[in-house]
Every structure is written in structure tokens, then in C-alpha cells.
Design a protein that fits this description.
12 helices
């Protein structure tokens, strides 16, 4: 039962973090600075844990895999925040959740696995949902719509790539602690380079600092729960539960940001959630 609660905790933390990214975009806060503070906070927590437990070991391939995950995840979060500025968070988070299609298809090609019938049904349901769920702004917002869909696609591909590398790391039996240290460290270095032009004002961004630290703490808790849930529970149940973090964003969008959905968009969101669950069973 504890693994089930851990999986729910992971979904909740991921959902809250994505909602905070939407809030930051709504307040026109620096996306890169929030991510920078978040990554350095998580890196400090994970590194401290490994040093205290004397489990600090680094090997070239796990470090490379972790660093790629960190960079791709940071890029996904930035693109997602940009998408939040141009379109509704409820639909944005649902579209990005469709990355599971990329993970299922690519991993079936790279690894000796066949795609079960339930996965194929899930893929078809997600494609159908993608057609139904389309966000149609008014004609004057056509440019914003193009930027929104571009950011959604870039975030979707980045998150999908993260899932593929995570699968590869599991297949190669890389240490999860090594992956986490490298992930947060690599992402922090990448974001430090991106934020170099803002260094003079970076410590004056107190709101970004607070949000980034909160996100960092929640993200570290999320991945710790994620690891425990996968270790103690069946992955066929854990993955669908964690994928439902977009429901948290949906609820937050309706309550906090007063977003309104049309009936066909609500149908599309429900279909997406069903498809995500089917592709991960």
C-alpha cells in the first residue's frame, strides 16, 4: 500500500510543480531563473544525501545519461512554461502527456520488446484525442497559437526523450543515485550557461528564488517516491498513476486560473488520460 501512496505523491508533486510553472508564466517571472534555482536546490539535496550515506560514486556512462536527462528535462520545463503563456494550461499539460506515444514506440524498436494490443489501443486513442482537443484561439491570436503549439511539441519531444533515456538507463542497470546527481548537476550547469546574461540581477529575483527552491524540494521528493514506488510496486500500475499528474494541472487551471473548457476539449482530455493509462499497462 505504501508504494501506491508513493506513486500518488509523485503525481501530486509533479502536478503542483507544473501548476507553479503556469503561475510563474502568468506573473511573467523569469522561466530560466526558476529552473536554475530549482536545479541547484535539487542538486544540493541529492549530493548531500549521497555524501552523508557514503554512496557517492560516478561512472562515465551513467553521468552522461543523467546529464542528458537533466538538460532535456530543463528544456522541456522551459518550453512548457512558454506554452503556458500562449495557451490554456489544462490543454497544454494534456498534450505534453502524449509523449508516452514516443516512449512506447521508440523503446519497442530499441529494445527486444513487442507492443501489446493495449498499448496500440492507447496510442490510437491518444492520436484521436490530439485531433479532438485542438485549442482554437480567435483569429487575432494566430501567431500566439503557432508559438503555443511549437512550444508544446518541443516540450513533448524533450519529455519523450527523457523517458527513452530513463528506459535505457534501467536496461543497463545504472545506479539511480548516479543518474539523479548527474541529472540535477548537468541541468544546473546547462541553466547556469543560459542564465549568464541575468547574473547581475539573479539574486534580486527573490520570487523566482522562492518558487525555484520550492519546486526543487518537491521534485526531489517526487523522484524519491518514484524510485520507491517502482521498487516496491508493479510498474504497470505505478506508471499510469504518475502520468495522471496532468489531472492536478487541470484542476489547478480550472480553480486558480479560471480556465474554461469546451465540451469537446473535455472529451479529448478524458480520452488522453485513458490512452496514457493504456500505453503504460
Amino acid at each position: 500500500m505504501l508504494w501506491f501512496l508513493a506513486a500518488l505523491g509523485t503525481a501530486l508533486c509533479f502536478g503542483v510543480n507544473n501548476t507553479l510553472f503556469k503561475w510563474g508564466s502568468h506573473k511573467h517571472l523569469s522561466k530560466v531563473c526558476i529552473q536554475l534555482f530549482f536545479y541547484w536546490m535539487s542538486f544540493a539535496i541529492v549530493l548531500s544525501f549521497t555524501l552523508i550515506t557514503d554512496s557517492f560514486k560516478l561512472h562515465p556512462l551513467p553521468v552522461l545519461a543523467g546529464a542528458l536527462i537533466g538538460i532535456l528535462n530543463a528544456n522541456a520545463n522551459i518550453q512548457m512554461s512558454k506554452a503556458f503563456e500562449k495557451g490554456p494550461a489544462s490543454i497544454t499539460s494534456t498534450i505534453i502527456a502524449m509523449n508516452t506515444v514516443i516512449v512506447v514506440i521508440v523503446t519497442s524498436i530499441l529494445f527486444p520488446e513487442s507492443i501489446p494490443l493495449t498499448n496500440w489501443i492507447g496510442i490510437l486513442v491518444i492520436i484521436l484525442a490530439a485531433v479532438i482537443i485542438q485549442y482554437q484561439p480567435n483569429k487575432t491570436a494566430a501567431v500566439d497559437y503557432k508559438l503555443w503549439i511549437l512550444s508544446c511539441c518541443l516540450a513533448l519531444v524533450s519529455v519523450g526523450a527523457v523517458g527513452i533515456i530513463m528506459k535505457l538507463s534501467t536496461y543497463q542497470h545504472y545506479s539511480f543515485i548516479e543518474i539523479l546527481v548527474s541529472m540535477y548537476g548537468g541541468g544546473a550547469i546547462y541553466l547556469t550557461v543560459l542564465a549568464r546574461k541575468e547574473f547581475k540581477q539573479i539574486f534580486a529575483r527573490k520570487i523566482e528564488l522562492k518558487i525555484g527552491m520550492l519546486v526543487g524540494i518537491l521534485n526531489t521528493i517526487a523522484y524519491s517516491c518514484y524510485l520507491f514506488a517502482l521498487k516496491e510496486g508493479p510498474s504497470s500500475v505505478v506508471y499510469p498513476i504518475i502520468s495522471l499528474n496532468c489531472v492536478v494541472v487541470l484542476i489547478g487551471s480550472l480553480i486558480i486560473f479560471k480556465e474554461r473548457l469546451k465540451k469537446y476539449q473535455l472529451v479529448g482530455i478524458i480520452l488522453t488520460l485513458c490512452g496514457v493509462v493504456l500505453t503504460k499497462i
